Amino acid sequence: MMENGKVTVRVPATSANCGPGFDCLGLACTLYNEFTYERLPLEQGVQVVSEGQGSGQLPEGRSNLAAQSFFALWEKLKQPKTGLKITCRIRVPVSRGLGSSSTAIVAGLTAANVLAGNPLTKPELVTEATKIEGHPDNVAPAILGGITVNVMEDGRVESLKIALARPLKLVVLVPDMPLPTSKARAALPRTVPHKDAVYNASRAALLVGSLMSGDYEFLTTALEDRLHQPYRLPLIPGAKEALEAARKAGAYNGIISGAGSTLMAYVPEDGDALKVGKAMEEPFKKRNIGTTIHLLDIDSEGAKVM
User: Fold this and answer.
1) Contact in structure between 178 and 54 (CB atoms under 8 Å)
2) Would the pTM count as exceeding 0.90?
3) 117 contact partners, CB below 8 Å, separation of at least 6
């Protein structure tokens, strides 16, 4: 909705890496944050109100990422100075590997673009979002929807949106334990063996081919990874067993979503997603770690002005 300087933007959660596609593959899923932006007289300043999951952890005022990203583009477009009220409705868990920060970045840029008359295209917004986020694998699917292959080239992002050959279910397990991206990044080695790079390159290619052809039986192999998951699994107690349980319960395979701690299983359209979710919960229950299960689909729209 946009009227009298007011716009509401819905942005999907995202899952970066998709197993072997470290920092280059990402998908959008059907879990959303909503942000309403309303221009105010300049003297009323910047007001941010957050509602929902983890809202108490988020900063208020201009230091909020949803406000920072809005003004980054608003000022770049040389729009008039303005006050702003932002109402954030948070459903995507914070610091869990589902792109919560990307929803704020994408919402701010989208709202600023709309209120300025839409001078930027979606691909241009992806590049602007990447300048803030630092990598495109969350912000690109958040803007474009679907599954995207993302490449940095001469300071801009090239994102190819993949059309899935047929539907795919996602079982998303969110442990009651945040895992800051900085900690997950710190667990990675500075260099990797050449054979591990080849291992991932081949599986990332197989993953894209499998999704586009509909030959989903290859997903079991294609979702394997050696660049980040082996180093991050120890940071998530129960994760290794949960991914094994997902496969035994009928999933093609499972991965760490983004930097974690969320786990995501890819399940056949006619598979028993609830059974997979319950199987994934068990290793966490044994460790007295609470979890939330989401049964989701892949979002095809990306950021949407409501």
Assistant:
1) no
2) yes
3) none
